[in-house]
Every structure is written in C-alpha cells, then in structure tokens.
Design a protein that fits this description.
- There is one protein chain.
- This protein has 14 helices and 22 strands.
- The chain is α/β, with parallel strands linked by helices.
- It has 2 domains: 229 residues, Aldehyde Dehydrogenase, Chain A, domain 1 (3-Layer(aba) Sandwich), CATH 3.40.605.10; 203 residues, Aldehyde Dehydrogenase, Chain A, domain 2.
- The strands form 6 sheets. It has a 7-stranded mixed sheet with strand order 13-14-15-12-11-17-18, with helices on both faces.
- Strand 7, helix 7 and strand 8 form a beta-alpha-beta unit.
- Helix 3 crosses helix 7 and helix 4 crosses helix 5.
- The chain is globular, with a radius of gyration of 24 Å.
- The N and C termini lie far apart (81 Å).
- It binds 2-aminohexanedioic acid.
- The site of 2-aminohexanedioic acid has 11 residues, from loops.
Length: 512
C-alpha cells in the first residue's frame, strides 16, 4: 500500500481529524505511537488516557447505562442494526486499517470486519430473544419463572490480534442486553479501536444514545488495573495472555465482580491414518501459518499417526516452501509480519529452546527478509519435529508466531493424552474418516478433547460467530460470541408469584 493510500484509509475513517490522533508522530508525554509491523514505520500517535479522563469516561458510561437499560431490547437491536450497516459501509477501510496496524493479510483484515458485521446481525436477532424460562411451581397457584436484566457498564479488554472483532463480540451483545461498554484496546492497535468505536458511538449518538460505546486507551497500570478494581464494572471481559487473565481474574474476584476470560490457546490437530490428507494439510497450513500464527486458535501442535507422519510432514514442508511472505496488503501474500520486534525475539527464543530440547527444524527456523521492508517483523513459518520420546517442554508454551511442533503417536488414546497434556484448552481438531475415531475424540463422557472447541475435519482456527467461543483450563473458561454467551452480559432473576390467597411454603414446611 502506498503512503497516499495509507492517508486515504485514515481519512476515510475520520482518523486524520480525530482529537485523540496526533498526526506528527514522535513519542511524547501521554502519547503512544502505533507502528506498521510490515515496515516498522509509525502510522500515527494516539493520546493516552490518564486517571482523570478515565474517571470521566467511566462516569459517562455509568450514566448512559441508566438511560440505555430502559430502551426496549428490540429498539436497542435497531441501534445495533444501524451500527452493523455502518460497519458494512466502512468494511474496506476498516479491513485495510487492521492490515496496516497489525499486519493481517488483506483477506483476513476484511474477514475480521465481517466477523463484527456477523455478530451485529446475530445480536439484532437476539434482541427479541433474551428469553427466560418458566418452571412449574410445586405450590398451587404459584408461578415460577426467570427474567434476564441488564448488568451495567462492561469493561472490555482486547488483544492486538483481533482489534475489531473481539470488541464486536462483546459490544454488540452487551448493547442488546442493555449494557454500555468501556473498551480498553491493546496499545498495539489503538487506531483500529478509535475508528471502530467512533462508528458505533456516532450511530448510537445520532439515534439519541450517547455514551453507550466508550473507549479508554492506556497502560495497564493506569487503566487496566483501575478497570479491574472498579466496582462500577460488574463484568470485565478480557482477552489476552494467561498472565494478564490471572491478574484480572484475581482483582475482579476480590470485589465479587464477574470475569469473562479468553486467554491463551495451545491448540492441537490430530491426523489419523483414515484421514483425507489433502483436506488435513490445507487445514494445518491455514491453522498454523494464517495470521502469521497470531490467533488464539492457531494450530500449534500436530499429532500424527506414526505410519503417515513422514509422508504428511513432507506435504506440509512442500506447502510451506511455496507460501508467500511479505507486504500484507500485496496481492498473493499469505503471511504478513509479526506484531513487533519482541514477538520476533520470542519466536527465535522458542526455536532455540526447541533445538536444545532435541527438536529438529524441518522447514523455516528464522527471520525472513522481505525486500523493500527492512524494518518489517517478518519470520519464516516453521515446523519442528519433536524427538521420538515425545518430550518437548517448549511445546507446552504458547508462542504467538507461525511455529508448529509435530508429534508422532501410536494409539488414539496416546494421541488424546498428548493432546490434553497442556495447560490451555481453547481449540482442537481431529482429521479422520473413521466414525469411531471421531466419536472417541468427542466422547460425551468427557474423555476426548478437553477444549472449549472441538472440530472434526475442520481446523482449529476460523470459528464462526454462531457458536460459543472460548476454552477451558488456563484459557479461562469464558464464552463469547454466539449460542447463549449473551447470558454473561445479563443478570438472572428468579421470580415466584403467588396469585392465590393461601400462604404456602416450599418443601412442605408448615409454619402456622
Ligand atoms: C482470537 O484469536 O482471539 O476462530 C479470536 C477464530 C476467529 C477468532 C479468533 N474467528 O480463529
């Protein structure tokens, strides 16, 4: 993308004249610079919040909540519908901004914005379906039922890698549920957040609802810690590292707040001898290499039956050699840069450790140089074979990079044990054409995959919004997006109504 096009993207999203955006880019007090990871060059500076602007924003959100919760849910849905329409209009520019700021290839940048549009559509339908149950009462002339009520301002903390869609999952559902949101985006992707929130806020304001969508941008010690400890947030929904989640979880729990955590993943894909290997190879390449390995759902471990391991890994090696690395906005690129220099160092450190632990680099293994972009944070997608013993401690860690560890297995029980042997439990997949094998992986007794997401003949990444998204164990246990995830953004009230004239107690208790 030329610099004229950069300017056009920023202009079409109103970022050139936004009060938070500082065009002359040099770091200064209270300003951070958002860099383009493909070039290492600055895009623009962004003004950070301090304690007093944080306070103003949260107070505004809390006031807006009192008005917003009284708007009927289907009418809230109409506001979300208008936001979805506006995001549709800006899909191209927002997608380009995602590419510019976090280095996603064009089609993935657009795909991410589509994910926000999809969740907006989902939320519109939901705005007429926030159902509570009715239950038969054990007492005559009594009615027992539940209703779902708005919860309050929701603190939404997001990571750099989905700078638009993860906000959408939270903010669109929260909005139809009657909640306001205060969004704290990653400091690595503040421009996408400013542009996205400005669209939602502008639409809501023009329909008479200011303050429903707000943004705070700041460091963890000034903003993150404050949010977690702030009793005005009954729910903090946080996406990011296990380390961050552990801290947020503890602080929020100590004030009896609720958390919705979507933390690390260490997703594995099992390939059995009956699998369609062509299908499996495509899924592994997208899962491990797509988004330069920077999705929570990225395929990080391949667990393959020993009898087909060499043949299948050779197919992968051949495919890896043809994958084009480079400018994420150039036609034909499949792998863009990592987010920053630190991510590159972590990738290199993981490879060094894997080698020291007996791993063998089959393809890739280092930085990639892209001509014309000496400052870009590019690396080669890498496959490392674990030693025969299957012992490779580094593979238990999530390294946010296109780094795939390969393990061979002998029995499916062995494969599933290896699969479940990590701390995280987000996404998982098996490739098989044998219904007994897929049945074992999805065993309803819980002895198969221990993850929140378990797929058959579909890869670990690229979930649709219609299902609940999230995982178990160190992934944090939260569920966002589809299915009944909306319930996290509301409070449940159980109601007993006595429409008779007799005093009756439950459990047959007599008190006369
Ligand atoms: C994330 O990486 O935090 O399933 C979200 C996927 C995407 C969402 C990923 N729909 O890969």
């Amino acid at each position: 993308m030329s610099s004229a096009m950069h300017t056009e993207v920023l202009r079409s999203l109103g970022l050139d004249s936004h009060p938070r955006v500082v065009p002359g880019v040099g770091p200064s007090d209270g300003v951070i610079v958002s860099n383009n990871p493909a070039t290492g060059q600055p895009i623009a500076g962004v003004r950070l919040d301090d304690a007093s602007s944080y306070e103003r924003t949260v107070a505004q959100s809390a006031e807006a909540f009192i008005r917003w919760r009284s708007v009927p849910a289907p009418a809230r849905g109409q506001v979300v519908r208008a936001i979805g329409d506006e995001i549709r209009k800006h899909k191209d520019a927002l997608g380009a901004l995602v590419s510019l700021e976090v280095g996603k290839i064009r089609s993935e940048g657009l795909g991410e914005v589509q994910e926000t549009i999809d969740i907006a559509d989902f939320a519109v339908g939901l705005s007429r379906q926030l159902h509570g149950l009715t239950m038969p009462s054990e007492r005559p002339q009594h009615r027992l039922m539940e209703q779902w009520l708005p919860l309050g301002p929701i603190g939404v903390i997001t990571a750099f890698n989905f700078p638009n869609a993860v906000w959408g999952w939270n903010a669109m559902l929260a909005a139809v549920c009657g909640d306001t949101t205060v969004w704290k985006p990653s400091l690595l992707a503040p421009l996408t957040a400013i542009a996205t929130n400005a669209i939602a806020d502008h639409v809501a304001k023009s329909m008479g609802h200011p303050g429903v969508f707000t943004l705070v941008i700041g460091t963890d010690d000034v903003v993150g810690e404050r949010m977690a400890a702030d009793p005005r947030f009954p729910l903090i929904s946080a996406t990011g590292s296990c380390r961050m989640g552990r801290r947020v979880g503890q602080v929020v729990a100590s004030r009896f707040g609720r958390c919705l955590l979507e933390l690390g993943g260490n997703n594995a894909l099992i390939v059995t001898p009956s699998a369609d290997l062509d299908l499996a190879a495509k899924a592994v390449v997208f899962g491990a290499v797509g988004t330069a390995g920077q999705r929570c759902t990225t395929t990080r471990r391949l667990i393959i039956h020993r009898s087909i391991a060499d043949r299948f890994t050779q197919t992968l090696i051949n495919a890896y050699k043809t994958v084009r690395i480079g400018d994420p906005l150039a036609e034909g690129t499949l792998v863009g840069p990592l987010i920053n220099a630190r991510a590159v160092e972590q990738f290199e450190r993981a490879i060094a450790q894997a080698k020291a632990q007996g791993g063998e680099v089959l393809v890739g293994g280092g930085r990639a140089s892209v001509s014309g972009a000496p400052g870009g944070h590019y690396v080669q997608p890498t496959i490392i074979r674990a030693p025969d013993s299957g012992e490779l401690p580094i593979a238990k860690e999530e390294t946010f990079a296109p780094l795939l560890y390969v393990f061979a297995y002998d029995t499916l029980d062995h494969a599933i044990a290896m699969h479940n042997s990590v701390e995280q439990g987000l996404s998982s997949a098996i490739f098989t054409n044998d219904m007994r094998e897929s049945g074992r992986f999805l065993n309803p007794d819980g002895s198969g995959s221990d993850c929140g997401i378990a797929n058959v003949n579909a890869g670990t990444s690229g979930a649709e919004i219609g299902g609940a998204f999230g995982g178990e164990k160190a992934t944090g246990g939260g569920r966002e997006s589809g299915s009944d995830s909306w319930k996290a953004y509301m409070r449940r009230q159980t109601i007993t109504v006595n429409f008779g004239s007799t005093f009756a107690l439950a459990q047959g208790i007599r008190f006369e």
